Amino acid sequence: MNEPRIGVYPGTFDPVTNGHVDIIHRATRVVDRLVVAVARNAGKEPLFPLADRMAMLAEEVESITNGDGTRIEVRPFDALLVDFARATGAGVIIRGLRAVSDFEYEFQMAGMNARLDPDMETVFLMASDRHQFISSKLVREIGVLGGDVGPFVPARVSARLVARLKDVTGATGKAGDAAS
Fold first, then answer.
1. Interior angle at CA 157, CA 153 and CA 163, nearest 5
2. Which of 53, 131, 135, 136 is flagged as catalytic?
3. 5, 98, 156, 174: which is the annotated catalytic residue?
4. At the topology level of CATH, where does 6-133 sit?
5. Which SS3 state, helix, strand or coil, does residue 112 take?
6. CA distance linking residue 174 with residue 147, whole number of Å
């Protein structure tokens, strides 16, 4: 029997967007088990604490796992990605690409990871057409300026984002009724 293909999809997920959820869903077609690795990234000064980002992801991937939780696991990490991937038993790093501008950075990262661990593969998944322009940074900016973040993030994330922005900045963004 073949060993299961384990993949790691890393990111800050601050907040998780519909684009992230799309990549996660599609990555499950490429690997047998997916570890969604939530970077601590204190240097980026995330809007949401690590525990909140992990909770939001866990809620959103629950429906993708057929309820048994065996296909997707959400874990924090604060190490070299290849070391984390190796520790999980992964042989594949999943990366999402939105536009050509993402490619240069991702290509450099894949090259460095390959030098650090020649057995680690990087698989790039292109964002679906309707998610190519979505980024967590832009979603946060829309929310800070009072715009409707609903079309860009899952409904539960939208509500949490609006509440968090109100707590942190006093912004009064709108939580849309869009589903993921």
1. 120
2. 136
3. 98
4. Rossmann fold (3.40.50)
5. helix
6. 6
Known catalytic residue at 44? yes
* pLDDT one-digit tens code per residue, 109-130: 999 999 999 999 999 999 888 8
125 Cβ contact partners less than 8 Å away, ≥ 6 residues apart: 23, 26, 27, 30, 94, 95, 96, 97
SS3 call for 109: helix
Confidence of residue 57 (pLDDT cuts 50, 70, 90): very high
So where are the chain's domains?
6-133
Q: CB atoms < 10 A from the CB of 161, how many? A: 28
Catalytic, 131? Answer no
Percent of the chain predicted with pLDDT > 70:
89
Q: Which amino acid is at 123?
A: V
